[in-house]
């Protein structure tokens, strides 16, 4: 099992924490020989797993919550960063 050690100060700014998590997951994917884009699925799977563990609820019960969380995450990302329209 991989153990991740944090060095330095954990950023107080949520935007900086997002960037740190993003960099860590991309590095993890690269180390596994996977495309860094795999980080998206890795993070979504981790989020679902955390929700299942923390709530003790079944998949059918957490699915609406996870859908709402994804929407909130997209809004937060749009607020933190400039998101490009995929159709542009």
Keywords:
mainly alpha; 88 residues
C-alpha-based Rg, rounded:
15 Å
In percent, how helical is the residue content? 55-70%
Give the oligomer, counting copies of the same chain as homo and different chains as hetero: single chain
Mean pLDDT: 86
Uncertain residue segments: none
From N to C, what is the helix and strand string?
HHH
Total number of strands: 0
The structural class is: mainly alpha
Report how far the terminal alpha carbons are from each other.
42 Å
> Which percent band covers the strand fraction?
under 5%
Strand count, sense and closure of the main sheet?
none
Number of helical segments with 4 or more residues: 3
Write the layout of secondary structure elements.
Elements (H helix, E strand, L loop, with lengths): L13 H18 L7 H17 L3 H22 L8
Describe this structure in words.
With 88 residues, this protein is an all-alpha fold. It has a domain at 36-80. It is 65% helix and 0% strand. The protein has three helices and no strands. The chain has helices at 14-31, 39-55, 59-80. The longest helix is centred in the C-terminal third of the chain and has 22 residues, at 59-80. The chain starts with 13 loop residues before the first helix and ends in an 8-residue tail after the last helix. The model has no long low-confidence stretch (mean pLDDT 86).
Quick recap of the structure?
The chain has 88 residues and is an all-alpha fold.
């Amino acid at each position: 099992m991989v153990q991740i050690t944090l060095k330095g100060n954990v950023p107080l700014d949520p935007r900086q924490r997002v960037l740190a998590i993003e960099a860590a997951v991309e590095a993890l994917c690269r180390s596994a020989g996977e495309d860094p884009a795999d980080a998206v699925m890795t993070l979504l799977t981790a989020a679902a797993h955390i929700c299942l563990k923390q709530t003790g609820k079944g998949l059918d019960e957490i699915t609406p919550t996870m859908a709402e969380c994804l929407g909130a995450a997209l809004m937060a990302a749009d607020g933190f960063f400039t998101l490009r329209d995929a159709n542009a």
